[in-house]
Amino acid sequence: MRRWQSATVTGSRAETATAHTLSLRVDEWNGHLPGQHVDVRLTAPDGYQAVRSYSLAAPADDGVIEITVQRLPGGEVSEFLTDIAMIGDELEVRGPLGNWFVWDQEDPSPVLLVAGGSGVVPLMSMIRARHQADIQTPFHLIHSVRTPQDRIYGDELTRLAAQAGGPSVTWLYTRTAPPSETRPPGRLRQNDLDDGSSWTSGATPTCFICGPTGFVEDAANHLLAAGHHADRIRTERFGGR
Ligand SMILES: Cc1cc2nc3c(=O)[nH]c(=O)nc-3n(C[C@H](O)[C@H](O)[C@H](O)COP(=O)(O)OP(=O)(O)OC[C@H]3O[C@@H](n4cnc5c(N)ncnc54)[C@H](O)[C@@H]3O)c2cc1C
Asked: Nearest residue CA, atom 4 of ligand 1?
């Protein structure tokens, strides 16, 4: 098991009204793979400790890592990280962790990314790693969000998708869709993943699904029903329903 290391908050920016990205400087960081996560440990003045996992949002930059945290109402750790943590604060991290939910940059297979809410974080790490290494492997991201205002990394994804060779990106809305959207708002449906495009099972993409547990299970079942093979589907469950 990796050891706990001190991490200093060096940056904080809002991604949406409820999601924040924190930059953390970790003295001894030897890099990580796109899709891996860290454990974050907070210690209160009375010694009480809380540990939660957060995906790494981007390739490391000179010992600085990034996490993006979605604030959950009443959430012990997420409320602290999004609303209270300030530049200069010290916390602890352990990682990188997880060797299964990672994208292998050497693998030329197309990649289908399916995210619910903050489940986009490790998938964005894959998209950023692909962009940084100038790799042309086809990537398609399907991101389910409540409303257009909940599109974490929305501007960056729109920019990347507009570039030649960039990923294609589809947003699905569960509560409120923009006026231009023809799909009625609602939870993920099978035909959202099986729309007759090259991203059906015939293209044998590697599929990464991430988000709340219920979302991940629904998405995995839809992909299996659409003919994707179980051994091509990797999942990461964030908890909740
Ligand atoms: C491998 C891994 C990677 C993760 N990466 C991220 C990430 O990049 N960004 C991120 O924001 N979160 C991520 N999470 C979720 C994160 O670890 C915490 O579970 C989340 O921040 C809630 O912690 P909390 O202390 O605020 O809430 P808690 O105080 O633990 O719980 C508050 C309430 O929220 C419910 N709840 C807990 N977790 C979730 C959830 N994920 N969705 C919906 N309801 C929930 C609980 O049942 C409870 O009712 C990841 C989880 C795992 C296992």
From this structure: 54
Task: Using alpha carbons, select from 127, 140, 125, 121 the residue that is nearest to residue 16.
Answer: 121
Q: Which atom of ligand 1 is nearest to the CA of 67?
A: 8
Ligand 1 midpoint to CA 201 (Å): 31
C-alpha–C-alpha distance, residues 120 and 103, integer Å: 14
The Å distance, Cα 78 to ligand 1 centre, comes to 7
In whole numbers, what is the pLDDT of the chain averaged over residues?
94
31: CATH: 2.40.30.10
| Tens digits of residue pLDDT in 4-35 | 999 999 999 999 999 999 999 998 999 999 99
42 touches 49 (CB < 8 A): yes
With a 6 Å cutoff on the Cβ, whether 74 touches ligand 1 is yes
Same domain, 174 and 231: yes
How many angstroms separate the alpha carbon of residue 203 from the centre of ligand 1?
33
Contact 103, 126 (CB under 8 A): yes
106 found inside a domain? no
**pTM for the structure as a whole:** 0.96
Q: Which CATH number belongs to the domain containing residue 145 in this structure?
A: 3.40.50.80
Structure tokens at 17: 């009204």
Same domain, yes or no: 23 and 90: yes
Q: State the distance from the centre of ligand 1 to the C-alpha of 19, rounded, in angstroms.
A: 12
Q: Which of 97, 127, 161 is the last residue of a domain?
A: 97
Residue 102 lies in a domain: no
* Residue 214 Cβ < 6 Å to ligand 1: no
3-class DSSP assignment, residue 152: coil
Quick: pLDDT tens for 152-201: 999 999 999 999 999 999 999 999 999 999 999 999 999 898 755 546 66
Range of the domain at 33: 5-97
Per-residue pLDDT tens digits for 136-157: 999 999 999 999 999 999 999 9
